[in-house]
Amino acid sequence: MIVWVEKDLCDGCRRCLKACPYGAIEIKEGKAEILDRCTACGACLEVCKAKAIFSDAEPKKIPDFSDHTGVWVFAEQRNGRLNRVCLELLGKARELGEALDQEVCAVLLGSRVSDLSQTLIRYGADKVYLVQHKALTHYRTIPYADAVEALVKIHKPNIFLLGASHLGRDLAPRISRRVGCGLTADCTELSIDPEEKILLQTRPAFGGNVMATIANRYSRPQMATVRPGVMVAVPTPDKKGAVVRHPFQITESRIGVKVLETVREKKTGSDLAEAKVIVAGGRGVGDAQGFQILRELADVMGGEVAGTRVAVEEGWIPPENQVGQTGKSVRPEIYIACGVSGAIQHRAGMMHSRYIIAVNKDPRAPIFQVADWGIVGDLHEIVPEMIRQLQASSG
Amino acid sequence: MDSIVLIKQVPDTTEVQLDPKTGNLIREGLKSIINPDDAHALEAALTLKDRFGGKVTALSMGPMQAIDVITEALGMGADAGVLLTDRAFAGADTWATSFTLARAIQQVGSWDLVFCGRQAIDGDTAQIGPQVADWLGIPQAAYVFAIESVNPKHITVKRRLEDGYERLQCRLPALITVIGEMNTPRFPRVDRLLAGCREKAPIRVFNAADIGVKTREVGLEGSLTHVIKTFAPKFKREGKILEGGKESVVRELIQRLKASEGATACRAFASACEL
Ligand SMILES: Cc1cc2nc3c(=O)[nH]c(=O)nc-3n(C[C@H](O)[C@H](O)[C@H](O)COP(=O)(O)OP(=O)(O)OC[C@H]3O[C@@H](n4cnc5c(N)ncnc54)[C@H](O)[C@@H]3O)c2cc1C
Ligand SMILES: Cc1cc2nc3c(=O)[nH]c(=O)nc-3n(C[C@H](O)[C@H](O)[C@H](O)COP(=O)(O)OP(=O)(O)OC[C@H]3O[C@@H](n4cnc5c(N)ncnc54)[C@H](O)[C@@H]3O)c2cc1C
Known about the structure:
The structure holds two protein chains of two kinds. Chain A is an alpha/beta fold. Chain A has helices spanning about 15-20, 45, 85-100, 115-120, 140-155, 165-180, 250-255, 290-300, 310-315, 345-350, 380-395; strands at about 5, 25-30, 30-35, 55, 70-75, 75-80, 80, 105-110, 125-130, 160-165, 185, 190, 200-205, 210-215, 220-225, 240-245, 255-265, 275-280, 305, 335-340, 355-360, 375. In chain A, strand 20, helix 10 and strand 21 form a beta-alpha-beta unit. In chain A, helix 5 crosses helix 6 and helix 8 (about 290-300) runs parallel beside helix 11 (about 380-395). By secondary structure, chain B is of the alpha/beta class. Chain B folds into two domains: about 5-215, HUPs (Rossmann fold); about 240-275, no CATH class. Chain B is built from seven helices and 15 strands. Chain B has helices at about 35-50, 65-75, 95-110, 130-135, 190-195, 220, 245-260, and strands at about 5, 10, 15-20, 25, 30-35, 55-60, 80-85, 115, 140-150, 155-160, 165-170, 175-180, 205, 225-230, 240. In chain B, the strands form three sheets. A nine-stranded mixed β-sheet of chain B has the order 11-10-9-12-8-1-6-7-13, with helices on both faces. In chain B, a hairpin with a 2-residue loop joins strand 10 and strand 11 (about 165-170). In chain B, helix 2 crosses helix 5 (about 190-195) and helix 3 packs across helix 4 (about 130-135). The longest helix of chain B has 17 residues, at about 35-50. The two termini of chain B are about 45 Å apart. The chains are: A alpha/beta, B alpha/beta. At the A-B interface, strand 7, helix 3, helix 5, helix 6 and strand 11 of A face strand 3, helix 3, helix 4, strand 9 and strand 10 of B. The complex binds flavin-adenine dinucleotide (FAD) (2 copies).
């Protein structure tokens, strides 16, 4: 991209000098001269009366991407175990692949992980690209980025999905930079635009207060990380698929990092912002003992316990677990409000939850107005029954 | 040990007020702050400087008013600030933002470490750190919550994983993304803040020409992704009161939950899957 002056046409009127926002034009011997600082913004072209300034810039066009095909999923594994999110992504990838009539491929990296290929096929992969190397045993950014970059450049996928896990969010931006493609973060919805046939990627931003739909028209693959637990894994037990092995070479000096130690830790404290399930209690819970039962329900469902301001003031739960206008804003998949009236200040913090369940003995309690499903009754009977049935169903 | 810290000015979304009628975000009166993770990143760089000496430079891209976060950084103890501001930078996705920031970093001169926050609370992508590292061709350590040791060749850090942490030795120069767990940011000192507001304050302001980029490579024009629509998250509530005896209402509730999109969130339903 350059801008230049045809000296013969230039009359040295200095208009361009004034119009240039960057001080990138000088007049030398009565003629305009473009300096190295020029950013090719085009401001001078517009003001030049003598039409002496030219640019080779062309309007931005959407390139032809017909040679890019296939819906890819990154098969995240650690210590030989697949992260569940990649099976969820395969479920979504099948749906997208069918809408586009393109194949679904999984990308599996590691050392001695070939067994996992069959699982990937049984969850929807038509093909597994397998790269095995000692340097890929433990996840490290650069060897993983190198290996995936090579695959993407050879096989040119149309869509590439990774889990928005710690690993996925570490790796995906580097691949996108290498390949030169856009990347959408932490999507919760993906669909194919019926006309343009592009991937529409919807994600929360501003701490979940705004949803944005993003398109990636100018580069391929259309790449996105996807929030774990949002898409649904669909087993395809009789499916057959191919495993395609790729060679890989790398030296330790290129990698630059060494994993000295990996330490597993039980999570301490609760993290409401990350929780997928929240069991919340209010005045109706009655006492701290009552919150033990809510805790049990939360444990069965794999969630956290929270409460109203009243529950905090009573000392039944710590202040950091208050939900609402003066507490935390949360947006779990499932919010179960027990003995909570549903005051506006409480609703402000939980109304963006995906599903809301209310248990309250007062049928007129406002919480029922924002609930998907309500049970009118005594929480001290309903909650233990929920625990019982959930335990029975999970065996 | 010279560091560059990337800081972003963001609206304070923790003070977000929702319209009680529509549930939409009320934007008026939202304060602008230094992105919370970035204050921790700056503290990390200042702590290293306190121990080993060196220079800390705060770098921000944004409108002219983002000079406020640079001044705040000087107040906390940064030695210099760089503000990247140009109409051409506006509307950038992470591809264009990381390119612009990386160009500016190369312009600032020599450095050993680039610090940034894990995530900005407005865009929320957490993509800038790794992308900047890749433009610069240096290794990265993301989700860092402790620095164990530093020597002229290496830095050893602890970085958070979903189920624990990892101790990582990383060659210098490197880029580190910091999470809030790492430290408590110091308060700015009033005398430094005042000095930061003076005309002679060590703040450089760069536009596209100053960092040697074309306007079409940055901002909205240089972006590869585009936001085509934004909307308030709204779900149609089913608003169904389940009726019947205790056992049957709970059974019905669980069936509905199992059949819903929320099913994958619940651990009790997960056993059907082989992982
Ligand atoms: C400026 C301001 C800020 C505030 N910020 C917050 C905030 O951030 N978060 C917040 O939560 N509140 C906040 N509040 C307080 C809020 O207005 C309500 O007072 C509070 O949310 C009510 O809490 P609750 O639902 O636990 O209690 P109540 O309103 O007393 O409701 C208790 C409910 O439990 C039901 N119940 C009783 N026993 C049982 C039983 N055995 N089984 C089933 N149901 C039963 C009752 O029918 C009732 O509906 C704020 C208020 C103000 C003025
Ligand atoms: C609703 C919405 C959704 C968006 N979704 C996407 C998307 O999916 N993909 C995409 O590519 N772009 C997206 N964008 C654009 C993106 O927000 C901008 O590119 C933004 O400049 C950087 O991204 P971030 O805020 O997510 O930063 P993050 O990557 O979350 O920031 C990480 C760290 O990088 C540093 N940093 C980030 N920005 C700056 C800055 N301007 N100056 C100095 N340091 C900085 C800080 O240290 C920060 O803590 C979206 C924008 C909006 C408004």
